[in-house]
């Protein structure tokens, strides 16, 4: 489904076996990475502070290991960027296809070991960044302030029987909604964003009950045509970043059991069930 994002690039602890004479780390097809290795190459004799890479692959998965020394990997999916620091031979970074990656800031004497899922094919490379963006056709997702326009949209969205049911929203009147909207600027423990997909208002996401280092996450895509396209994950990752910027270290949420899509999404993002109610779960994630 869709393209992978930088949040699908994972750092894997490969473990090590300790001997008196030194350490041993093993990587194997099937168990270590989600692909079979067809090609191995390594970059060495790179001057300190130098950069390499700066391309994307269409099909090829790569697994990077700092076999010696250290370097950073700058990851970019056209919308989000992440920088991963590799400085131990028992750590590996899995980069799925469709991610623009560069290795930067090599320490002197560093060796970058690359295990790849495909043999060399020039046609698999995207070396031009504009071409990469076109290839990704990156959806433009933005968190914006929750204004009157979104208030009006929310009225329609939350009165749609399906959205109302899935979000477990009770009945409310126009007056109650207005009162709530006017109280927003005074609520210290509450953050709320409207979400735009392209030029369209698409949904509402927020953090409630912010206290000390935790908060309750909640949110919904109100425009149904955007459901099931992977947008939920992208939006939630933006909210998780906002939560980190607020200094939060834990988020929890409540979801009805009859909402398998939302539950799957939350599990994929690292939430786990901490309370199993009659018809709902409470899930939690450390940031
Ligand atoms: C919940 C919501 C945010 C999910 O966002 P989305 O962009 O539609 O979800 P995605 O397309 O990313 O799907 C999430 C995952 O659930 C899976 N999924 C979809 N429908 C599913 C179903 N019926 N059963 C199990 N898994 C399902 C998808 O395959 C995807 O997993 P994948 O990435 O491994 O393929 C969005 O659908 C929404 O807001 N729905 C209406 C309101 C709501 O439910 N809000 C949450 C209240 S707690």
Task: Write structural notes for this entry.
- The protein is 21% helix and 38% strand.
- It is α+β, with helices and mostly antiparallel strands and 287 residues long.
- The chain folds into two domains: 6-136, Jelly Rolls (Sandwich); 141-286, 3-Layer(aba) Sandwich (Aminopeptidase), CATH 3.40.630.
- It is elongated and about 70 Å long.
- Bound molecules: coenzyme A.
- Coenzyme A (COA) binds at residues 1, 163, 166-167, 220-221, 227-233, 255, 259-262, 264-265, 268.
Secondary-structure map:
Blueprint: E1 10-13, E2 17-19, E3 22-24, E4 39-43, E5 52-57, E6 62-68, E7 71-76, E8 81-86, E9 91-95, E10 100-104, E11 111-116, E12 125-126, H1 129-136, E13 141-145, H2 148-158, H3 161-166, H4 174-183, E14 191-197, E15 200-211, E16 214-221, H5 231-245, E17 250-256, H6 260-268, E18 272-276, E19 280-286
Parallel strand pairs: 16-17
Antiparallel strand pairs: 1-9, 2-3, 4-11, 5-10, 5-12, 6-9, 6-11, 7-8, 7-10, 13-14, 14-15, 15-16, 17-19, 18-19
Coenzyme A binds at residues 1, 163, 166-167, 220-221, 227-233, 255, 259-262, 264-265, 268.
Q: How do you describe this structure in short?
A:
With 287 residues, this protein is α+β, with helices and mostly antiparallel strands. It has helices at 129-136, 148-158, 161-166, 174-183, 231-245, 260-268, and strands at 10-13, 17-19, 22-24, 39-43, 52-57, 62-68, 71-76, 81-86, 91-95, 100-104, 111-116, 125-126, 141-145, 191-197, 200-211, 214-221, 250-256, 272-276, 280-286.
